[in-house]
Amino acid sequence: MQLHIVDHPLAASSLTVLRDERTPRSRFRPVLYDLAMMLVYEATRTLPTMPVAVTTPLATTSGVRLAAEPVVVPVLRAGLGMLPAALNLLPDAHTAFIGLSRDETTFEPTVYLEAVPSDLAGRPVLLLDPMLATGGSALHCLRLLADRGARGVTVVSVVAAPEGLAALESGGPAVGTADLTVVTAVVDERLNETAYIVPGLGDAGDRIFGEM
Ligand code: URA
């Protein structure tokens, strides 16, 4: 597994606004949009391109376009907060959805939606989930994506916990993901007793959409 921490003053200042408990939903969403842009920009740095000719008003020159359209997979609910930025950068991406809720005693994910193309072979996949906490949800998604043929998956998160990264490091190959990258703005200290990331930013879904 490769870990890429986006170390940039704009990412760090956006993250600070997201962490702040006083940041209202109305501001949280656009700041998450900005930060997701930066994270997806980094997550797509190695996407393969193919050469194309382009004609400017003055001459014909060489350009590129993406060789394969990526598949973007927001993990519901909170991953939806990162989707608009991802689709702005990747307007032709295919969007798939995985819906997971968390059992508040075992912290294990329960699946309520899997709307994912049946054949992901050869397609770069971006899994969007702002909080990489225990890694249980991400591993569930990686298993599903690998079962559908995905080999190169990039998990795009805002805050990662060491526990979640360790789970992906050991579990990623076991679920069939040959080429796994994690892009995040920060690796935080730890999980607390209810599997929330500390210091984190709280419940990302609640911060984006409101408490359930
Ligand atoms: N999910 C969240 O939204 N926040 C955490 O801290 C952990 C999981």
TrEMBL record:
Keywords: Allosteric enzyme, Glycosyltransferase, GTP-binding, Nucleotide-binding, Transferase. It comes from the Bacteria. Its EC number is 2.4.2.9. The keyword Glycosyltransferase applies. It holds the Pfam family UPRTase. GO terms for biological process: UMP salvage; uracil salvage. InterPro entries: PRTase-like, PRTase_dom, UPRT, UPRTase/APRTase. Pathway: Pyrimidine metabolism; UMP biosynthesis via salvage pathway; UMP from uracil: step 1/1. Residues 6-210 form the Phosphoribosyltransferase domain. One of its GO terms (molecular function) is GTP binding. The keyword Methyltransferase does not apply. Its cofactor is Mg(2+). Belongs to the UPRTase family. This is Uracil phosphoribosyltransferase. The lineage of its organism: Bacteria, Bacillati, Actinomycetota, Actinomycetes, Frankiales.
